[in-house]
Amino acid sequence: MLYELSRLTRIFKERTILDLEHLSIEKGKIYALTGANGAGKSTLLTLLAFLDQPTSGEIRFCGERVRYGRQQLLHARRRVVLVDQYPIHFTGPVWKNVEFGLKVRGISKKLRQKRVEEVLERVGLENFPQADAHKLSGGESKRLALARALVVEPEVLLCDEPTANVDAENQEIILNILEGINREQQTSIVVATHYLSQTRRLAHHVLVLEHGSLSETMNENIFKCERIHKEEDFLVCRVGKEVDIRLACNQVQGLEQHCRIHIDPKSIKFLARDAQTQEKNILTGHIVQIEQDQDFVRCTIDCGIRLHAVLTMDAYLQQQLMIGEKRVFCLPDTSILLL
Amino acid sequence: MDLLVNSVQSAFLLLFSGDPELLTIVWVSLKVSGISTVIASLFGIPAGFLIAYSHFHGKRFVLTCLNTLLALPTVVIGLLVYSFIARRGIFGSLELLYTQKAIIIGQVILIVPLVTSLSIAAISKIDSRYRKTALTLGANQRQMAWVIIKEARYGIGAAVIAAFGRVIAEIGISMMLGGNARGFTRTMTTAMALEYDKGEFVLAVALGLTLMSIAFAINLLFHFFQGRDAIDVV
Predict the structure, then answer these.
(1) pTM recorded for the entire structure
(2) Parent domain of A11
(3) CB-based burial of residue A71 (10 Å sphere; 0-12 exposed, 13-18 middle, 19+ buried)?
(4) Distance of CA B116 to the CA centre of its chain
(5) Which of B130, B135, B147 lies nearest to residue A51, judging by beta carbons?
């Protein structure tokens, strides 16, 4: 195991930012870390980069308990690099920035030159070695931050929102670089992201953080809902402005006026036009997006709220879904979870 | 008015004639002030970094003390150092009184708080991500500190220039600890006071013009650094 975190908490000013019972991260894999703003993603990355100390609990790195003495920290930090969400560059040219990590490790000038040239070519900045690092565009700046991290050939690369605030072309370049170094150098990567659809392509595992804790459910298909009225054996709750969802009374005892629900994307079922069903929650919506996600197909339906459905490839081919098409689907009782 | 005009004319003649006494006075002033600025910077900049980046009880009190020391009168420092280095003082045996070293000691005490205070201000302005970035890229504490100081170099440079300007224009310490010995501890300010006492305005005005020129050059440098900082911020 690369990392093992147990009973770990991080508290800032009496507010618990992170509270993890157990988390294991395997060597050589790519992990996507997702969650809403303030879920604790950046705090977790900072702890994994040994730039901060947990309030309580333990981090084991490559089987050894992390100690926070100066020398032990320096040794651990030199194996892990964190690329910030908003990277800041040292004053000076691109070359000097990339060279920094090698210089502080006392690498010879000849080897520095070779490694910097290689990594600049890898990130597509080989034509700007002397450009002022502060004058790069957003995408170039992110790629420079990545180059600065990759040049030291870290065992672990932690990226905080690497594709945020950059155009589609640069997003693709960055994701390809991450995929490449994981494949070629077996670098373990943890990517915190909001753009799960992009990162899912390369991630072997997805970790979902919610209010500082790991969540079983993805942070998609989570909605705030308001209790409207009671009908026989179920409660009608409104999601968004116009979507009513019926929750079985035995599932929602003690439900407050406002609550949050999660709809499991894999449980959403598309219905044939003439199908008869006993399901309570039958909705109609337009299909607005279809994309492949490894062995599955992800489909986004606009029915007043944006719902994500995940189908097996067979189910997708059988349903013959098309973008723009209006389709009827149902949410089985078991697909709705009260949070 | 005639007196001033005549004095200025004569002063210019004296300046351009390369008068040896005038040049010696200017050289002593620049040497003493230069050395005290270097020593004060060697103490003040690292101290500024440590204070800016440390979290300890009483940090606010230390900052208040430093700011108070900025207003310390030169004669108070002169008296204090005199009590230590006078023949009957603790360090009397070192025979420092009325030497350039005595002036340097006093001037260092005068400007260490200034360099420290302005360095704290310059370093505190530096984005905390520089520290985080340097550490994650493998820098040790010393290498990280060097990164921060390099990024704050304009502000720190301005602190050093301000300190030099402070010591080259001071008179209390130079007079009380240096003794205004001709060709040895006579600085521009002490010489001007002496010439004024004697009623010899020409040398006093010439020294005044030189001092003003140096002060002007220092301010030009200061504004140059400030300007660069301002551009960086924009």
Answers:
(1) 0.77
(2) 3-215
(3) exposed
(4) 12
(5) B135
